[in-house]
Amino acid sequence: MNVKRFTSWEEAVAWLIAQPEQQELVRACYFDRPALPAAQRYWQSDEWCAVRKLLPANIGRVLDVGAGMGIASYALGKDGWQVTALEPDPSNLVGAGAIRQLASKAGLEITVVEKWGERLPFADASFDVIHARQVLHHARDLEQFCKELYRVLKPGGRLIATREHVISDASQLPKFLAKHSLQNLYGGENAFQRKEYLSSLKAAGFSILSVLGPWDSIINSTPFTRHKLAEFFLARYGHWLGASMISRIIFTELGFQFVRQALALVDRRPGRLYTFVADKPEQVQ
Fold it and tell me: Where is the secretion signal located (predicted)?
């Protein structure tokens, strides 16, 4: 996608939305308009259903960090959580203004705070849960960011950081950035090594509950669906296995799980997606 670089994320997304040939990407990013149906689609998605299972059973106060245009804030509010959305961009298309508009149209009470994550404007132990979708890899100081998330989380609270870009080593970062379709519009993308995420979370005091790799959960693999997997295998191995065999492999549950496990062993793509779930211990040292 060869286009000019934009001076703001709002300009970049507005341009992308207007491109007929980019509508698949627009929908995958939930940029499609109107915003309320897009947010409803996210709330009903397999991704959100999987995230919901990671949330604690007891509903309470949640901080949605780097909330963007508010699709996760909307989903949390629809599920009954008391939501505070942290989003430094004031934009009415992709930022705090968009969240306020979405909340108003949906009839949800969402508190919107326009601040950065490295210095959170909240008291210690303010939230039961912190949710962050595609956020930690944007941190200007990952360790400080994690310390702030830990500080405002209640003892026994949970951090759920989904769809974080992972690289194997520093040499993969330029390759990842060169291939990232949205990086070419405005920039701002980044990725860390898996061990960097984990060391920053542990240094903050978190106890790691689970680490989900790119094929361990639909959270990370979406929008790479079974149909897209079938297309991929058909293009790569169709001449050898045949279309009917590939369909039997991909579209049976056992075959699909086998394919995902096999992909997990060999997937070393720059920027592959991970999800990190971590708890703040009940007894804080």
Answer: none
